[in-house]
Specification:
The protein has helices at 16-28, 40-50, 69-78, 93-104, 121-136, 149-157, 199-202, 208-228, 242-245, 248-260, 274-279, 281-293, 310-315, 335-351, 363-371, 391-406, and strands at residues 8-12, 33-37, 55-61, 82-89, 110-116, 161-170, 176-187, 191-193, 235-239, 268-273, 297-303, 320-323, 354-357, 376-377, 386-387, 420-422. By secondary structure, it is an alpha/beta fold. The protein has two domains: 8-136, Rossmann fold (3-Layer(aba) Sandwich); 144-414, EAL domain (TIM Barrel, Alpha-Beta Barrel), CATH 3.20.20. The chain has an eight-stranded mixed β-barrel with strand order 6-7-9-10-11-12-13-14, surrounded by four helices. Strands 2-1-3-4-5-16 form a six-stranded mixed beta sheet, sandwiched between helices. Helix 3 links the parallel strand 3 and strand 4 (82-89). The structure holds ligand C2E and calcium ion (CA) (2 copies). One calcium ion binds next to loops.
Length: 426
């Protein structure tokens, strides 16, 4: 973690009492310098006087006389005066939600999150810790790393692409009923790389088909291993890209591969994204129908992002609706997200298909999903994606915890409400 002693923070708040409280909090986090200001105009003056390069953190109120927090954030971003901002407010959570969406679209300034006042030390610590983790996480290679087709081809030949698995849990019972296969690159220099480092470079090239088959092949092997260990009821979900789904030959090869492993189509679920299906509806429909006829499960992934209508959805033979984490994460505190989440679950139920919420990170969001009768949850609250060999142990060690999560209906109200929220996804 960074040493804070050479970092500068600025607290912007019109109430003297709140300001003193927040300055004390930030000081207790060992920031080298803590500046303070009464409103936006005062903040810009203080920064100008301070004069050095960017401050690391600005903690600002929204509602202030003079220049308000929104205007201040705009200035900070435009003139690159700060690296990170946290917005504090006593206001309507809907307003904080708008601010979050505003901030995350500005690449120059990181809006870390919003917090309801009075700010608590543990929330502030958690938010800063998360930023440090993202910065230092081994999985995140430097942004500038990009790979040539030759490097990707070599990686494929040397079996460096491997599946991780993330559990999916039935919300009513806490039983693990499936896993999603998520590709990782065991890079000899950069360590374990997440898909966004390599899938965009593979997509649209001749490598996409062999890459996808390599992941499917390994996932099928795992499915067989888990069955031998007695996990019969586990389904394995696998992501397919638009180009592979639209290619009938490829679909035929996938089916042959599944047969060669002796796997039952019912134990596999193909995930395709909403935007991808809706933009190539006619090409995809035939192959989706073929897969469904053979008995495979089909999931519409990232649902909610593409705003497909229920009518469009009803034309595709999906068995599962995966609601995008953008509408799940923090839904407990954000009325807009919760509304979209509720209507997505309702659409799924009306069509008679399983609803899966992605990106479930907190108990509060889990509770909302319980209330809305969502079927399945997937997210860090349950587990992060893991290598295959960790899965049997993980199941053993988490069985009770998941059962009690499912039964948490009564005890959940005793839980302290989460008062802070972090913007965006790592
Ligand atoms: P996806 O299909 O939407 O997968 C879910 C992503 O959300 C995964 O990211 C997973 O690690 C992450 N995730 C799960 N729970 C949480 C949570 O609680 N909080 C947060 N912040 N994130 C969570 P990952 O593994 O980086 O994969 C990113 C995307 O790459 C996937 O999104 C999928 O579209 C694509 N992908 C992964 N593996 C494959 C593959 O084998 N083939 C294809 N075509 N695409 C793949
Ligand atoms: Ca997926
Ligand atoms: Ca998804």
């Amino acid at each position: 973690m960074d040493s804070r002693s050479n970092q500068v923070a600025l607290v912007v708040e019109d109430s003297a009492v709140q300001r003193a409280h927040m300055v004390a909090l930030v000081q207790s986090l060992q920031f080298g310098t803590v500046l303070e200001a009464r409103d936006g105009v005062d903040a810009l003056r203080v920064l100008d006087n301070y004069g050095k390069n960017q401050v690391y953190l600005v903690l600002t109120d929204l509602d202030m006389p003079g220049m308000d927090g929104i205007e201040l954030i705009r200035h900070l971003g435009e003139h690159q005066l700060a690296e990170n901002v946290i917005v504090t407010s006593a206001r309507d959570p809907r307003l904080l939600e708008v601010i979050e969406n505003m901030g995350s679209s500005d690449g120059r300034l990181h809006l870390l999150g919003t917090m309801l006042k009075p700010v608590a030390l543990e929330d502030l610590t958690a938010m800063l810790k998360r930023v440090d983790q993202i910065k230092h996480a081994g999985m995140v290679a430097p942004d500038h790393v990009s790979f040539t087709l030759q490097e990707l081809e070599t990686a494929l030949e040397q079996n460096q692409f491997t599946p991780y698995f993330q559990p999916k849990v039935a919300i009513a019972s806490g039983v693990v009923n499936g896993v999603e296969t998520l590709a990782r690159w065991q890079h000899p220099i950069h360590g374990v790389l997440a898909p966004f480092h390599f899938i965009p470079s593979i997509e649209g090239t001749l490598l996409m088909a062999p890459f996808t088959l390599a992941i499917i092949d390994q996932a099928l092997r795992q499915l067989n291993t888990w069955r031998r260990l007695g996990h019969y009821a586990i389904t394995v979900s696998i992501n397919l890209s638009a180009e592979t789904l639209a290619d009938s030959d490829f679909i035929g090869r996938v089916d042959a591969l599944v047969n060669s492993h002796g796997a039952a189509p019912e134990s596999l679920i193909w995930e395709v994204t909403e935007t991808m299906v809706m933009s190539h509806l006619s090409e995809c429909l035939a192959n989706l129908a073929r897969l469904r006829l053979k008995g495979y499960g089909l999931a519409m992934d990232d649902y909610g992002i593409g705003y497909s209508s229920m009518q469009q959805l009803s034309r595709c033979p999906f068995t599962e609706l995966k609601i995008d984490r953008a509408f799940v994460y923090g839904a407990a505190e954000r009325p807009n997200r919760r509304a979209i989440l509720a209507s997505s679950i309702e659409v799924g139920h009306r069509l008679g298909i399983t609803t899966v919420a992605e990106g479930v990170e907190s108990l509060l969001d889990w509770n909302v999903l319980q209330e809305l009768s969502c079927d399945v949850a997937q997210g860090y609250l349950i587990a992060k994606p893991m290598p295959a060999d960790e899965f049997p142990n993980w199941i053993r060690e988490n069985r009770l915890r998941l059962r009690s999560l499912a039964a948490s209906g009564a005890s959940k109200r005793l839980h302290r409400p989460e008062r802070s929220r972090t913007v965006g996804w790592q």
